[in-house]
Design goal:
single chain, 285 residues, alpha+beta, six-stranded antiparallel β-sheet, two-stranded antiparallel sheet, 10 strands, globular, binds adenosine-5'-diphosphate, binds magnesium ion
Length: 285
């Protein structure tokens, strides 16, 4: 393991994204009788991204079971290091790929529980006047206790009034009103939830490549579950309706994340409790 400083040790890579990389780390207290603390550090090389650092401050005021805890930021060898809660059962991206590699699909009951956690995280952020703006499978993290949490609020910003108009985030998951540079609000998140859940359900990204999508989004019909190839899975009408509501192109008729929590596909499944811990442990056993 690599000593980042006297007490923090990098004990292995958790993955890399467009802007940086994430490692599992340990704090080993000087007193060997004290327990070591495990957490994750995201490292960003220095650059224009520095300005986003200020926005990380917003993470500090987040305290929700649906948001990955943020511990603080420091510099190491010129890089920016963001310390956060370690999630030991990987991201939705890895979870659906693992299930797919077994020739299976995520059960709708599991999908609705994942969707409910994402929507509860977004509801919490909205109450704090924060837009997440980067909802996608790799930013939905699991732990072996069955918790599902949102991470990477680094590009989120406070809502100015109710609308924000800056162009940041990952295009494939961006709502049409963001791609066209219009002002956007909390309903853009609902679109990203729809793409994320649809991707997890079918095991692949449901939209064309970025550039093609960005160039043609105004001519494309939104992806509808009913139009998709038959994946050998019988999706329930409630699930199809959930996806179709999320993927309404017209932002004025698209529900907010909080409204989507009232959708029957989310509400009606709550009577049948599901053990997400048992599910996720089975995925990674
Ligand atoms: P991206 O989200 O675009 O894939 P990131 O740099 O944000 O890129 O993250 C890279 C990978 O690191 C993610 O796919 C995820 O699996 C993993 N990761 C990120 N944060 C954590 C964390 N707090 N705990 C465990 N794994 C994490
Ligand atoms: Mg990420």
């Amino acid at each position: 393991s690599l000593a980042l400083n006297k007490e923090i040790y990098d004990v292995g890579s958790l993955g890399a994204g467009a802007g940086g990389w994430v490692s599992k780390c340990e704090i080993r207290p000087n007193d060997p009788n004290l327990p070591k603390k495990i957490f994750a550090i995201k490292t960003l090389p220095p650059g224009p991204r520095d300005i986003e650092l200020k926005e990380l401050i917003i993470n500090e005021r987040c305290n929700s079971p649906y948001i990955v805890k943020y511990y603080g930021t420091f510099r190491h060898e010129g890089n920016i290091c963001i310390a956060m809660e370690y999630m030991d059962a990987k991201s939705l991206h890895e979870v659906y790929n693992r299930v797919k590699s077994e020739g299976a699909f995520l059960h709708e009951r599991v999908l609705s529980e994942i969707a409910r956690s994402i929507l509860l995280g977004l509801k919490y952020l909205n109450a704090q006047r924060i837009l997440h703006r980067d909802i996608k499978p790799s930013n939905i993290l699991f732990n072996l206790n069955g918790a599902i949490k949102l991470c990477d609020l680094g590009i989120s910003r406070d809502l100015d009034g109710t609308l924000a108009s800056t162009f940041v985030g990952t295009r494939n998951y961006m709502a049409p009103e963001r791609l066209s540079g219009e002002k956007y609000g909390v309903n853009c998140e609902t679109w990203s939830v729809g793409i994320t859940i649809l991707e997890a359900a079918i095991g692949e990204h449901p939209l064309p490549e970025h550039d093609e999508f960005v160039a043609n989004y105004d001519k494309l019909a939104p992806p509808q579950l009913t139009d998709l190839p038959d994946y050998g899975v019988m999706w329930s009408p409630a699930f199809k309706d959930f996806i179709n509501q999320c993927l309404k192109v017209n932002v004025n008729v698209r529900p907010s994340p909080t409204q989507m929590l009232e959708h029957p596909w989310i509400k009606n499944q709550q009577d049948k409790p599901i053990d997400m811990g048992a599910f996720i442990r089975r995925v990674w056993q």
